Amino acid sequence: MDQKVDIRELNEKIERESGFVDMVNMEMGKVIIGQKQLTEGLLIGLLSDGHILLEGVPGLAKTLAIKTLSQIIKSKFNRIQFTPDLLPADLIGTMIYSQKNEEFIVKKGPIFANFILADEINRSPAKVQSALLEAMQEHQVTIGEETFKLDDPFLVLATQNPVEQEGTYPLPEAQVDRFMLKIIVSYPKKDEEKLIIRQNITGEFPKPTQMLTADDIIRARKLVKEVYIDEKIEQYIVDIVSATRNPEEYGLEKFKELISFGGSPRAGISLAKAAKACAFLKRRGFVRPEDVRAVCHPVLRHRIGLTYEAEAQNITTEEIISEILNAVQVP
Q1: Taking 50 as the threshold, does the pLDDT of residue 316 lie above it?
Q2: How far is Cα 277 from Cα 300, in angstroms, rounded to an integer?
Q3: Is residue 167 a part of any domain in this protein?
Q4: Which residue range is the domain that position 289 belongs to?
Q5: Is 146 in a helix, a strand, or coil?
């Protein structure tokens, strides 16, 4: 009975404190026409302290989306264009010699910001990707003998182009696993595209209103952690991730030869965190199975490895995830 009272109180608290979500969506909607999935993914990543990998052809407002979010929240935004000749020092910074002081001083790189857009991350070699991923995981950077903490909140949005693969360095699976979500950005609808063209022709671009600070986001993250997740929902998450590793245990024998590896424990952690953030966005103090299902594709699509047989049969991770969700019993 006490627990029910607690959940009721938690619901009221989150209903009260999550009012800013509607305002952020409204401000994002002023600038970004359509792309609701992208906006929601950005908010889930931001509220659950997770980084995002975006895949989509050029010109789909990927840069504009994160820039708009950084304008709504009083924070620093840096865009880094990844190229084959980029060096780790260009990203994190380096030691430079000061003739005036006759000593080496630290020159910080563009990684020292709240929002980082790593544009076309797969254009740079592994050494540069590793420098970025270390900063993502540890939230700190070491230059010379000094270690510097990165600002909070710290969100990396990395993009990759799915159509042009010449001269790219695909992200290894272990590195891709560091991204909480992989969002596929699709083309806008016809009526949305007409609005986009009209805006660009007239040159009338609405400007978002700055309404939040970094402290507001840190406070919201603490609230997201408080969102209640029942043991049955935890078991549901474990079953979904387990089905990506051992599909035959869930009546999906046909996938046994098609999956080379399933989700890691990080997949389960990300599913739980993203489901909590999803419940928070819906202004609810507890997680429902539909919250887990809503975030399953973005959390798992980059964490399932396909065999050559799957590729030969044109089987995608999207199909596998959908079938797993149909097979695993919902609590």
Answers
A1: yes
A2: 16
A3: yes
A4: 227-327
A5: strand
